[in-house]
Design brief:
Elements lengths: L1 H41 L4 H39 L3 H68 L1
Helix pairs in contact: 1-2, 1-3, 2-3
GO biological process, one term: cytoplasmic microtubule organization
Protein name: DAPLE protein
Organism: Alectura lathami
């Protein structure tokens, strides 16, 4: 039973490590998306709107990631407590079932976060496309305005 418990603890630790790696990747993607949005916002007149969007996006992602990190730390503490306490196999089994459920919930949360990040990436791409279109339209309008101004000046002369 102890060997089984030890193996199960090792499996849970491995799962936690995988979740931590996924979480860090998610954080890196969020940071990169934030950076991309900031770069994009510098190139247009819509900077204030985008900055608030970037800020909200980063805040939302950061809060989710912090919550996941807290959950993960809690699971690690529980595993350490199990090791230290050397609970009976029955109690250990029950605790492991609980930990497994928590791990599954954490995995689902991470998956949801990754899906949201993908959606946010698509939204960012859409915003970038819209921004480029607006810049092109602005340039065209400036050309038309300059032409009209030149025509007006000729008429005045």
């Amino acid at each position: 039973d102890r060997d089984t418990d030890k193996k199960r603890i090792e499996e849970l630790l491995e799962e936690n490590m995988v979740l931590e790696i996924a979480q860090k990747q998610s954080m890196n993607e969020s940071a990169h998306l934030g950076w991309e949005l900031e770069q994009l916002s510098k190139s247009t007149d819509l900077a204030d709107t985008r900055k608030s969007f970037v800020f909200e996006l980063n805040e939302c992602a950061s809060s989710r990631i912090l919550k996941l990190e807290k959950d993960n730390q809690s699971l690690q503490n529980t595993i350490q407590e199990l090791r230290d306490a050397s609970l009976t196999s029955r109690e250990s089994s029950l605790k492991f079932v609980e930990l497994e459920k928590e791990n599954q919930q954490l995995s689902k949360k991470i998956e949801k976060l990754q899906n949201q990040i993908e959606q946010e990436k698509q939204s960012n791409q859409d915003l970038e496309t819209l921004s480029e279109e607006l810049i092109k339209e602005k340039e065209q309008l400036q050309v038309v305005m300059e032409t009209l101004k030149a025509d007006k000046d000729r008429q005045v002369q």
